[in-house]
């Protein structure tokens, strides 16, 4: 069954203008061409769309009303497809607002910005830094169009999520700690040691999940919300930490050394996602951002918690 969008346009025009001649004039085409298109569509669909009235134009049949409505939908979808294609090509431009979770932004945003600018120089990325609650609120009120964040297990009917990577927890120890000479540590090795907790939901949940199978509660010594402060306190010998992102150098701001060790056994991985609102159709800019994030994440090793390229 073959028909063209042009033939559907002719059909809709006849319905809207009430006559073949008026439709032809509105489209700047010949009357026989419009009449032939309508007859062809009636033939292949087996539906009489119009009742012809001599010298008085045409009127839609009941079946014709339904078919014309369906034809309008097809034409609208075709137009949307055309616009989508235009948005996805090299002319993608304009501002897009991206929210980002504070501990993720230093690791991922610089590379995302660099890659996005190279591929889409006319996109202006605006950054909003905030916690999970703020990011979800900004998505709802339209402040941001997408959010780079940990998966908050939120309402899937409200938020669309695109998974980018998963981060596995590791133990951060002072370089001089007795356990630092081991190739790996277990939750049982750590549970009685003083813990420096990165108190930032939902990261806190992933840290404490490490001890789920032990019979003891972790010995929380300090709770702070700054990633580098956690590392500094660990390097100063104040305890150990459970983290899932690892800077390129195993040194803190004051030059002290820390040691990163894998944790044996089953540990819960933290999913990093790009979230948006389900109610908003992804624009070309949003699609470009998703493609860029996917490209960037291919160079990140979630097991090592580091960039590999």
Automatic annotation (TrEMBL):
Taxonomy, superkingdom: Bacteria
Q: What is this protein called?
A: LysR family transcriptional regulator
What InterPro entries does the annotation carry? LysR_HTH_N, LysR_subst-bd, WH-like_DNA-bd_sf, WH_DNA-bd_sf
Query: What are the leading ranks of the lineage?
Result: Bacteria, Pseudomonadati, Acidobacteriota, Terriglobia, Terriglobales
Claim: DNA-binding is one of the keywords in the record:
yes
Q: Locate the HTH lysR-type domain: which residues?
A: 1-61
Record's keyword terms, sorted: DNA-binding, Transcription, Transcription regulation
Entry-linked PROSITE patterns = HTH_LYSR
What GO molecular function terms would the record report?
DNA binding; DNA-binding transcription factor activity
GO CC terms in record: protein-DNA complex
In the record, the note on similarity to other proteins reads: Belongs to the LysR transcriptional regulatory family.
Natural source organism:
Paracidobacterium acidisoli
